[in-house]
Amino acid sequence: GAGVSQSPSNKVTEKGKDVELRCDPISGHTALYWYRQSLGQGLEFLIYFQGNSAPDKSGLPSDRFSAERTGGSVSTLTIQRTQQEDSAVYLCASSFSSYGFDGGYTFGSGTRLTVV
Amino acid sequence: AQTVTQSQPEMSVQEAETVTLSCTYDTSENNYYLFWYKQPPSRQMILVIRQEAYKQQNATENRFSVNFQKAAKSFSLKISDSQLGDTAMYFCAFMKHVGGGATNKLIFGTGTLLAVQP
Hints:
The structure holds 2 protein chains of 2 kinds. By secondary structure, chain A is mainly β. Chain A is built from no helices and 10 strands. Chain A has strands at 5-7, 10-13, 19-24, 31-37, 43-50, 65-69, 75-79, 88-95, 106-107, 111-115. Chain B is mainly beta. Chain B has no helices and 12 strands. In chain B, the strands form 3 sheets. In chain B, strands 2, 5, 6, 10, 11 and 12 form a 6-stranded mixed beta sheet that branches. In chain B, strands 3-9-8-7 form a 4-stranded antiparallel beta sheet, with no helix packed on it. In chain B, strands 1-4 form a two-stranded antiparallel sheet. Chain B is globular and about 45 Å long. Chain A binds chain B through residues 31, 33, 35, 40-45, 48, 50, 53, 56, 58-59, 89, 91, 93, 95, 98-103, 105, 107-110, 112, and chain B through 4, 6, 33, 35, 42-47, 50, 52, 91, 93, 95, 97, 101-111.
């Protein structure tokens, strides 16, 4: 596609429920990143996928968080047993290569998750 | 670990004036990259300008320029001739240069909310 697409745009869920957030990167982009943006905070790195390599999960805050990327394209971030502190905007970005130092990340518009 | 600090939570500037946003960072790395991203209300992060640490010359993109002081670990953004469309959240970000396919994750500051007043 022309840009990084994220769905849903907004999600309200009850505490304790599971949620799935979807990211559809730009076609051909091999690298995909998930970030979390909490109110008043910068962007917090969560997880990184590069081609067929094992993902870098070092930023996931707890074992309630998991992500997968199917066929090197679409990625799904799953949060189990949601808590109120999970409320944030979840941003996805993709890049043509692992060497994104040219600033060539393209970000989606994010999913605003609200846990009530 | 690398950290990025933006000490100005909010700033305001009159249309057509010049404004400077501050950013400092902490790293022991010698080879890295610095970025300024803009986030309008649409939430999408947009790259404004980038700087390679090995380059002494400050990067410039039209009305946007940076003052990169490597020894002081400072990376400020200057916006000239401010326009209403510049109103947004601005994030400073750091990326360590690595090889071998390791993560090139961006480390972000907490942002500066810039309001351009008519």
